[in-house]
Design a protein that fits this description.
Length: 67
């Protein structure tokens, strides 16, 4: 297998695993702090904005590189 293809798939898989683990951490934090529905929504919204920023950054970089 070509190392570039392996790196691409591993990076994608590990980022998905990291975001999923962060989601679990946020859910556990909301549950332990008794944040309620609104507080849990705010926590996941903040996590979602971070993930969205990461995705947008990737799209902008690939757009600038022309691929």
């Amino acid at each position: 297998m070509d190392p570039e293809i392996f790196e691409y798939w591993m990076m994608t898989g590990l980022i998905v695993a990291l975001v999923s683990f962060m989601g679990f951490i946020v859910w556990d934090l909301a549950k332990q702090s008794k944040a309620g529905r609104y507080g849990t929504f705010v926590l996941f919204f903040a996590l979602g904005l971070g993930v969205l920023g990461f995705v947008i950054k990737g799209l902008v970089i690939s757009g600038l590189q022309g691929s």
